[in-house]
Amino acid sequence: MLCQLRGTVDDSKLPGIPQGPMPFNLSWRASIRYYSTSLQGSKLFPVKELTTHDILLQSRFIYQPAAGLVHWLPLGLRTYRKLQAVIRKRMDQAGGLEMELSSLSSKNLWEKTKRWDNNELFKFKDSKYRDYCLVPTCEEEITNLIGDLCSSYKDLPLLTYQIARKYRDELRPRGGLLRGREFLMKDAYSFDLTKEDALRSFDNVNEAYRKIFEDLKLPVTVANADSGSIGGDLSLEYHLIHKSGEDVLFECNSCQTVSNVEKCQSLPEKGFKGAKEAECQYFINKDRNTLIIMYYPKGRTLTPRYIMDEIPDIDFSIDEEMALAMFKNESEESSSFLVKEIIRVIDPRVTSNTNMPDLKVLYHRNSMFTFTDIPIVEAVAGERCYECEKGTLSEHTAIEVGHTFYLDKKYSSPLDCTVVNEKNESTIVYMGCYGIGVSRLIAAIAQTGRDEVGLTWPQIIAPYQITLLSNKTSNEENLDVVAELLSSFDLQVDGRDGKFSMGHKLKQSKVAGIPLQIIVGKHFPLIEIEVRSPIQHSQELKDLYKRKTWDWEIQESPQTAGCSEKHLVHLTGLAQVVDLLLKCL
Asked: Alpha-carbon Rg of the chain, whole angstroms?
């Protein structure tokens, strides 16, 4: 990396150095630190044949010492820190207070929330045989902390966040940064006195997320989502639509509702006469007196949690064989079937025309109840939307990059996070939690933005905004002048003179996704600018170009790989044109 040093160094206290002030007013060329620059790499490689993860590795953004682990190299670290700054700005504007929690968490907190038995936790014992885990998320720790530090309703509302490393013992880490054992995450937590306040906090953070992705100029899709193991009954996911994504989304063409496959219910197409054959699955409730039988079309994927609103005490931890055994044993011990119930849940695709399986238990007809209007299978493209009952569902694959949850009292209740309200009564606080996978987002941006030449980054997080290059015929002093003129930009000067050709250096810059390549050549003071990624000209740029100042010319369809357009501009207008171009990217 090349640096520019200016100022005065007082070396009087440095042993072995001639005494007296040594003037420093060196150009970037004179002040090159001749340490190795090989961390950025020098080899060209066949981009088309590589996965995005391999491009990140070959371009020296990251290094992977083992499956699921990543070292951040200089280019990757610059991108990560810039993304941090984008997130931090919007979280601060939303009222968030940044902190940094320990990466270690004690077993007792996770036992209180019943999450210690998670197989994806990295668990270990210290020298005194106390149990800990490496945190995959921090609901337990932050709730315990706020419960200790906040005692009054006057301390609320409160929004905290951190950008830190998290850990998950993935059995099969894959996709590089998309699914690793160690990852970077922005996690935020809100604490409120009432449910209404908590929902306002939920909306507030989601608005901050909208601004974050708007700053990044990313076309995110927001989807209704299942809260999963985190908990709560309201959550939204943020996705980048891409064929490589592991998540499946469904979108209605009428009401425009978008939902994750785990959340999306659907109805059969109009005119559907019913499945030919049904299969069923047995469940039992928590008091073991009610057997739940779900009937659904053979070959479809059952989604039993869709019945939770109607049967909230269903026990999904008991498998089918055990559920049947428990119900039969209880029935034999009971003096009659009157205390026993059977609830049949029949998917709308199962009709009177459908061949039904035999029931595996005895029953009393007065103790059987039936639901027939609740979809209980995963949606498929082409079916009707359950929300509006009019539109047709289309399917998209996507990469999840953010998730927000309204938690209610999921964590504050077992961890006794309370405050005293205005009536001097102790009350449990309401919570929300909000995550952005920072390393995952970097991978997703790289994946969705790559082309046949290499990576393309939103300029706001590109490792550098500009690569400044010169060919063999250019004067060194000319390069000094341009470097000084562009010093206010995030500039990378490729000064590997004589070691690599201009074409080699240009390709490396484009593979790394640097937004602008600026070339100082034989036509100086005319400067050539290559724009790496597609650009939409602003009205300001169009108006300025019409004035025909600075000998400015635009070639909109250059026959150059990895270049959307070229500009030729006089040195006097270079900085202003560069500024306008970056704003358009």
From this structure: 30
Contact between residue 165 and residue 103 where contact means Cβ atoms under 8 Å apart = yes
Does residue 338 share a domain with residue 320? yes
Residue with tokens 């996704």: 513
Whether 568 contacts 551, CB under 8 Å: yes
d(CA 447, CA 51): 9
How many angstroms separate the CA atoms of 526 and 573, rounded?
Answer: 10
Q: CA–CA separation, 350 vs 371, rounded Å? A: 12
Identify whether 51 is part of a domain: no
What are 62-112's pLDDT values in tens digits? 999 999 999 999 999 999 999 999 999 999 999 999 999 999 999 999 999
Within 10 A of 460 (CB to CB), how many other CB atoms are there?
16
- Collapsed DSSP state (helix, strand, coil) of residue 281: strand
What domain range is 552 assigned to?
466-584
- List the structure tokens of 480: 């000094």
Q: Which of 366, 427, 418 lies closest to 146, judged by CA? A: 418
In the beta sheet, which residues pair with residue 223? 237
Degrees (nearest 5) of the Cα angle 184, 185, 190?
Answer: 160
DSSP state for residue 566 in the 8-state scheme: E
Residue 363 lies in a domain: yes
Question: Which two three-digit tokens encode residue 56?
Answer: 């990140």
Same domain, 314 and 435: no
Tell me the pLDDT tens digit for each residue of 286-312.
988 899 999 999 999 999 989 988 899
CA distances for 516 relative to 313, 412, 443, 488, angstroms: 59, 50, 21, 15
Q: Read off the pLDDT of residues 164-190 as tens digits, 9 standing for 90 and up.
A: 999 999 988 888 899 999 999 999 999
Contact 395, 247 (CB under 8 A): no
CA distances from 281 to 298, 320, 357, 375, 457 (A): 11, 7, 10, 14, 48
Half-sphere exposure in the Cβ direction for 177 (13 Å, CA): 31
Could you give the maximum distance between any two Cα atoms of the chain, in Å?
104
